[in-house]
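Lesson 9: reading folded outputs for more than one chain in a single document. The general rule is that every protein is listed as its sequence immediately followed by its structure tokens, and records are never interleaved. Here is the first one.
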Amino acid sequence: MDIEFGNAGAINTNSTGWFIGFSDWTKADVASVTDLRFMAKNALAHTIPMKWIVHSVNDSRSVAKPLSEGRTLSILVSETGRFRLEFSANSTFPVGQVVQHELQAHGDFVIWGENIYYG
């Protein structure tokens, strides 16, 4: 599954702040990771959908979402909160086939590609 975790403040952006975009420093520095943060200069802006939503403690909306159709970014903007995400190639999230990640610090992010279920 194409999933990348990181922290926007910890990534080397050559002092530009751009951790997603057209520049070479947005490319993955590990061969096993796909270049989800890199977009070719001719890429259309709809290649990374983003939305703004506030999740309160024990948010009841923690149900599986539809299959992702493109790259999606989730970033923790809170300085005190935490947010757990689960990913699977299977809509039933079978044991042993789930990648789980918790955004814990201000600026933590996860970006994932298409054909992944998340919840």
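And here is the second record, again sequence then tokens.
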Amino acid sequence: MPEQLKDRVALVAGATRGAGRGIAVELGAAGATVYVTGRSTRTHRSEYDRPETIEDTADLVTEAGGHGIAVPTDHLDPAQVRTLVDRIAGEQGRLDVLVNDIWGGETLFAWDTPVWEHDLDKGLRLLRLAVETHAITSHRALPLLLRHPGGLVVEMTDGTADYNRDTYRVNFFYDLAKASVLRMAFALAHELGPRGATAVALTPGWLRSEMMLDNFGVREDNWREATTRVPHFAISETPRYVGRAVAALAADPDVARWNGQSLSSGGLAQVYGFTDLDGSRPDAWRYLVEVQDADKPADTTGYR
């Protein structure tokens, strides 16, 4: 969608890697100016201690056709977020798209561990990073977004509202974090809708993020090798897929029809017609319910 978002300004909060990076790049590919934030820069790494940086993301945005601007920001610090928003206001005078993708919890949760056995400090840190950051960013950024009608807020989470309602997600802290973000989108929709803006919750499917590929010992160009060990990984998708979902929403003049809804990359692909980088349309959440959770053999026929 080249140029569809020309003259639009976006903030992707939490764009160092994964879904945030994919979203920022696809907004850039549609012509947007994209501010990308995170704590990992070329001179400082977050506790993740990984090589991806916000400067790299900004460069990818620009290479895709947009204008990428990297701003190091700790979204747990209201003063830093205020400075970020003041900078956007001063340089652009507007904010059209806010993507709350701050997470940072990959090393903080233990699978299938009850709350009384889970490390409390790590669990509370996870909630702060996954929930408090979103609230702080919305509090500071939404007055700017509301200056012009038609603004869009995307709350990034893991799982649709329907799936998470009926499914225990990993552990107490993880489940609570993802449910909270879903509810944030619902609440924001009630506050933004009457004021001319739209808020949605959005989930990717099984994401082939940099960390996921590393965990499976594969690269993007040979990711299918991991399916010999984890067959259902066949339904996975690149971060650019959910990025195309956000770009499609941002370019939709009737985006308000989605206000308050829980959406997925696979579901929106069926509506807007975009594909993943390989030309497929993985529908991971339908696959999880009908194949993986139903204990059927891995088979993506009809699902991508």
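What the second record shows: Residues 36 and 296 are 40 Å apart (CA to CA).
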